[in-house]
């Protein structure tokens, strides 16, 4: 296996966008003791992939060049390290490769056993490769930060989800509706019916003057906002929040961090909560099971072969995906 070659995608410096992606032939990686080698069937892109390339997380990521991007993969285990206990060759899996190592835009990828989860064969590779970053972020925002119980047992909450048509947002709407919630969602005009079909109770067009105020058409104040868009200041959220309302900001800019600190220091009941997804395998298994049970669906914006990975990259950078962008080796 070690001497065989595979197709993979890399970039060698910061910047350059999709044009800077290079297709290369490299040796198929060997799994270390605690790793599995996966024959990749699908990989999904996330905005963080091109943000790392842009140098937005410099100097932390990438750790070195060339960098092989792509973290969210689904495929079949073809080899396991000597210490791997829970998986075996032939298992269908989903893995979250770290942003530091990446390597998902390739025919084969290695993942730690701890971040690789079994998936039942009836859950497709594309549907499950879409889950790790996007759905785990939506799940964490709703359950951990907003305190929503997805079995519907909690008290009724009013939730606002911004950018509900995107990768994170489309999962957030569906997951929120598993709880005892009233969901208001924002998206562009072309996606209003789509977002309603995901379960949103009311939908606002973010490009209209009324939409820009984020006011609920039925006059609700929000107990929590899962904020998946960017560039909306606290002053727009504040008048729409209930007395203990929280804005969970998954793309906090410097102004949001100042608001976060100020609200904390002044013991404000209304809070801004910056959120960074932290991987939990049990949560990924839970989400895969929801897909299997038909309670959650992945909506695929577009699919590309690995040979056209740069087109998928450009589509993600464009910022107008409806659902998830998938690359299939
Ligand atoms: N903190 C974390 O751990 C974490 C995890 C995942 C993602 N993120 C971040 O969260 C953001 C969203 O990620 P994503 O994967 O969902 O992105 P995405 O799929 O690229 O989002 C694209 C969608 O957002 C919609 N949109 C853009 N601006 C909007 C606005 N102001 N109001 C309403 N809708 C708007 C677009 O609609 P139109 O086409 O109609 O404009 C499009 O459908 C990104 O910045 C990403 O980096 C953070």
TrEMBL record:
Residues 16-327 form the Enoyl reductase (ER) domain. Pfam families: ADH_N, ADH_zinc_N_2. InterPro entries: ADH-like_N, Chloroplast_QOR, ER, GroES-like_sf, NAD(P)-bd_dom_sf. CDD domains: MDR1. Gene3D superfamilies: Medium-chain alcohol dehydrogenases, catalytic domain, NAD(P)-binding Rossmann-like Domain. SUPFAM superfamilies: GroES-like, NAD(P)-binding Rossmann-fold domains. This is Enoyl reductase (ER) domain-containing protein. It comes from Citrullus colocynthis (colocynth).
């Amino acid at each position: 296996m070690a001497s065989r070659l595979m197709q993979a995608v890399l970039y060698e410096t910061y910047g350059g966008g999709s044009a800077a992606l290079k297709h290369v032939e490299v040796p198929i990686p060997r799994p270390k003791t605690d790793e599995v080698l996966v024959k990749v069937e699908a990989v999904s892109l996330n905005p963080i992939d091109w943000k790392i390339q842009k140098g937005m997380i410099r100097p932390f990521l990438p750790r070195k060049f060339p960098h092989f991007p792509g973290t969210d993969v689904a495929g079949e285990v073809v080899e396991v390290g000597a210490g791997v206990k829970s998986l075996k060759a032939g298992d269908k899996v989903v893995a979250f490769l770290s942003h530091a190592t990446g390597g998902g835009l390739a025919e084969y990828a290695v993942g730690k056993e701890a971040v690789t989860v079994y998936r039942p064969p009836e859950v497709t590779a594309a549907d499950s490769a879409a889950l790790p970053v996007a759905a785990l972020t939506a799940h964490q925002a709703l359950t951990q930060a907003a305190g929503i119980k997805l079995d519907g047992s909690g008290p009724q909450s009013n939730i606002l989800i911004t950018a509900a048509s995107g990768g994170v947002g489309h999962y957030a709407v569906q997951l929120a509706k598993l709880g005892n919630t009233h969901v208001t969602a924002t998206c562009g005009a072309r996606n209003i019916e789509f977002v309603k079909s995901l379960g949103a109770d009311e939908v606002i067009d973010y490009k209209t003057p009324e939409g820009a105020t984020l006011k609920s058409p039925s006059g609700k104040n929000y107990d929590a906002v899962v904020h998946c868009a960017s560039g909306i200041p606290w002053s727009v959220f504040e008048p729409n929040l209930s007395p203990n309302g929280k804005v969970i900001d998954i793309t906090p800019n410097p102004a949001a961090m100042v608001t976060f600190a100020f609200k904390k220091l002044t013991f404000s009941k209304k809070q801004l909560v910056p959120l960074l997804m932290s991987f939990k395998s049990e949560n990924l298994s839970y989400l895969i099971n929801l897909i299997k049970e038909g309670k959650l669906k992945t909506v695929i914006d577009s699919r590309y072969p690995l040979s056209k990975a740069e087109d998928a990259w450009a589509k993600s950078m464009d910022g107008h995906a409806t659902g998830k962008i998938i690359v299939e080796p």
